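Translate sequence into structure tokens.
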Amino acid sequence: MACRPTAMRIFIGVVLLVFLFTGLLACDKPTTVAVMAEPSSAVVTRYFEALQHNDYAAANACLDGGTQNVFAMTKTTGSPLDTFYAQLLQHLRFELSADPLQNKTASAISTTVKVQNGNTDNVSVTITAMNVPVLFDAAMDTLSKTYAESLVNATPIPEETLEPRLYEMLAESIADANAPSLSGTLIIRVVQTDGAWRIIADSTLYNAVTGNFLQIVNRVPEWEP
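Result follows.
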């Protein structure tokens, strides 16, 4: 006697076919690979950490325009100025704002989403650096008195040694635990260039990381006997 399929067997067979068909479709469906988009704050962190380690090449790479940027750090030559500059940046401290609107965390994006060059963002950073103008004034006062005394005693200090000595004194003053510092919060502008975030550097940022170093550049005197 032939066995006729019951309604229940037919129903179970249909359900199994549906599940099988659905599984095959799932296997054929292409998988979308998620890419982690670097937050704008990451380039700011790299920039400050590079400065703290005197890695000027890495710091320059974080800037829009790289080493061509007018406010980029320069290569060292081993001068007393370089020594002072290196110690100055080693004392640099920074803390990114906890404001979620300022510093975004990385998020997964579809591979079909293209990075739009020219997009800008702001990153808030609290910066603490040595107060260079105050250190400069103290060093200049001491050095000027020493130089004046050398003239009175008819044993003038060679002019070519005065500026290097000034920067040596500035480097020594930074090592003082009571050396004055300044602190403030700065909004750093960043822009997407070639698929990555870059910092838009200006004199405000440069002064912030160097403790207003630009303020003393034109105040170094021309020593005259």
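Note: Confidence is low (pLDDT under 50) at residues 14-26, 28-36, 100-114.
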